[in-house]
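Researcher: Structure for this, please.
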Amino acid sequence: MQLRRVLTALLLAATLAGCGGESGTASAPQSAASAGETTYLRFCFSCHAAGVAGAPKMGDVAAWAPRIAKGEDVLLASTINGLPPGMPPKGLCAQCSDEDLGDAVRYMVERSR
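Model: Predicted structure, token format:
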């Protein structure tokens, strides 16, 4: 029961961290790498930096290897649709486009090989 409360609190904190009226895409043109980094820092970081709810930590080669082996399309589909029990749909970035999410996935994968 205690673990459930902690996970609920973390999920709520991650949700609130991503709140805002801005679009997931910056208004100025960015490279895919910088756009991916921006999305990661705004939305993905809260779980993927610490491994919250089983999220693979960015840079953890062993944790990412089997995910990377499935291919970018599978990773992106998991990001868009969510992956129970811990990955919510769109990683709690409801305003992110599929392109924004793809950039973030590529950003994390490149730093986790």
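Researcher: Any notable elements?
Model: The chain has one domain: 2-17+31-110. The chain has a mean pLDDT of 82.
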